[in-house]
């Protein structure tokens, strides 16, 4: 036996049945403390509730219960102050804390783990942790929605080209375009909030997989920790990570939206579009090209989408084909989850800052709206209102566009005589009819870009 192994053997909390210590390479390979240390607050919260329940049920004495609770509070302070010496020999956060507890309060510390396994303990910790983080994300999404709505309100009269196939299609209000993202983020908000119902299940009391022989009071623990429901099957409770999958799926969909918004910010701030100017403080320069002002923040959000999608795929792959109940594979849920939480929170916050600081280049948008024959649909509609069938009107408008292209003139630059050579239904009023403001204003059917609709939606959003 090497010295290292002998030492490890002496110190393992589960060392009883082993005649040799753990290989150093295995210890390094299996330890998760570097990753799961961030669960310490929730781990201690869960342990305090468990200890209070054990004392209430007289499974441990009241005095032992009090010592354990005070000891756990001392451990929490040590970790919070950075005075705690984490050890990979103790594998994970659960055993690091239990070890220190016993150092601090003596043999009573060894009673904390009565009627509990790390399998139900880690399931509890993940739920407590995620419940808190989802609340932060929900608040962040609401703040982002407000920021977008405020930018919409500030630019309520600005008309921009609306696109399909990234070709100019029909004029829309910039506010309507921005509020499209509010709808997406509101659905994301609903998805995360809905997932809370599946997180809100208390798994402690499931033991390693089969439950426990001790007369525990699970409902009491749930009440102390603010859970509304108890898990109903101990095997499921220690194996279930659906609540994480749902969270990662919601995050992946959120990142579809963030990435689309980020991409538009990149496009719009380019010289080619020039629709917006991003705030200097949120852009970076080039080490070589002095003139550059790069939109790195939205680019990175677009880029981080890759890892968020990857994390969902990683956990789906970890879970598939796992036999019931707990398997160590499940420890691999933490990196994907924690990195997703961090990436979502940071990205939602910073994209809001970029939006709040951007300037809309109204003159560029006004110019862009004039080009691209975006009033061709309305030219056809004008003829339909005057009795032509839409198909025939579409044909006439198409011919007008072809003529305009050939002569390098916009529809509104053609004389009435020229227009009438395509259809004698054209009258003076056609010019007013196909102006951008008129086109936007007529799209009053619910959900359309008319100012009245957009203003109503802003009112609903209370901005
Ligand atoms: N670190 C482990 C995890 O994250 C805790 C549970 C360990 N359980 C066990 N039977 N080894 O999944």
Relevant terms:
single chain; 463 residues; mainly alpha; two-stranded antiparallel sheet; two-stranded parallel sheet; 6 strands; 61% helix; disordered N terminus; binds arginine
Explain what the structure shows.
The protein is mainly α and 463 residues long. The chain is elongated and about 100 Å long. A hairpin with a 2-residue loop joins strand 1 and strand 2 (167-173). The protein has helices spanning 3-11, 24-30, 33-36, 40-56, 62-80, 93-105, 118-154, 174-199, 218-225, 234-239, 242-268, 296-319, 334-357, 362-370, 376-385, 390-407, 416-420, 430-433, 436-442, 451-460; strands at 159-164, 167-173, 201-202, 229-230, 276-277, 359-360. The chain binds arginine (ARG). Arginine binds at residues 32, 36, 92, 118-119, 122, 326, 328, 330-331.
**How far is the first residue's CA from the last residue's CA?**
70 Å
The Rg value, from CA coordinates, equals 31 Å
Reading side by side through the largest sheet, how are the strands ordered? 1-2
The overall average pLDDT, rounded, is: 96
Low-confidence stretches: 1-9
General shape: elongated
- The biggest beta sheet, please? 2 strands, antiparallel
Give the number of DSSP strands: 6
Bound heterogens, unique:
arginine
Number of helices: 20
Q: What is the chain-wise order of helices and strands?
A: HHHHHHHEEHEHEHHEHHEHHHHHHH
